[in-house]
Amino acid sequence: MIDIGHLFVCPLCREGLTSSGDGYACTSCHRHFGKANGVWDFRVEPAAAEPPLYSDPFFRRHRECLAQLHAQHYGENSMSGQLEDRFKQVARKLMETEPDFVGDIGCGTGGAFSTFGPPSRMIGVDQDIKLLEVAARRYPEATLVCCDLLRSPLRQGAFPALICLCCLEHVYWLEDSLAVMHDLLAPGGRLYVMIPTEGGLAWSTARNLFTLSVNAKISGMTNDQYRHVMRIEHCNNFEAVNSALFKFFEIERFNFWPMGIGGHHLNLIGLYSLKRRTSQMMALASKS
Ligand SMILES: [Zn+2]
């Protein structure tokens, strides 16, 4: 288990934490942060406002069915679940070092912990407490943190490695979130990213063939209504994520998978090993 005392700060005033009972307290505002059901709770009130797009009635209905959709995706014989496992094994090859610990941004139920871990070296970060509680039951030795990334307790410059897998395509506040990940990396640290080639031919075809009608049915929608939901759920296509990454990070390595060639139309995922840009380089990149 990782000692989070020196890796975390108060999400409100960014001051250090000190041990307090079975949790931590801010050395400045004295706010207490504890652990329940295996998950550190660093959520702060008021919760950040949701993007207006999320009030879409079909999107809300989709969200209400998330537990069933997850069960379908991670169930036995699920094509999409097996494919995701394969993606993670491919992504693991990006990481050539053995960092002391790895922050998993948007970790969900901890699906990448054993591939990138051991789980005892993983710090899983997500804003969905229910998914984190599942992760805690699966991997009690992992460190799990519930927070909004834009008001996170993670200390700047503290992480030798971060992973963010099949997540950035969902992130509404994409550049703000990438700026946070940039600042979290220690000198020489790496961010490993995997994104589906959302918006490309291969990915659209795979969705239409394998998941669209099953998931539409679970959510009680027509295929067209569910396509509309997916447009909201995956608000950033491949090109958008690719451009945003370039503003904050130097691309050390990039691969498409499985074809390698043919760009985002012929592949299912893009994989990145990223180094943080210096502030000066960031200013240049965002102007170019
Ligand atoms: Zn504080």
From TrEMBL:
Gene3D superfamilies: Vaccinia Virus protein VP39. One of its GO terms (molecular function) is S-adenosylmethionine-dependent methyltransferase activity. Pfam families: Methyltransf_11. One of its GO terms (biological process) is methylation. Residues 104-193 form the Methyltransferase type domain. Signal peptide: none annotated. The keyword Transferase applies. Keywords: Methyltransferase, Transferase. PANTHER family: METHYLTRANSFERASE, METHYLTRANSFERASE TYPE 11. This is SAM-dependent methyltransferase.
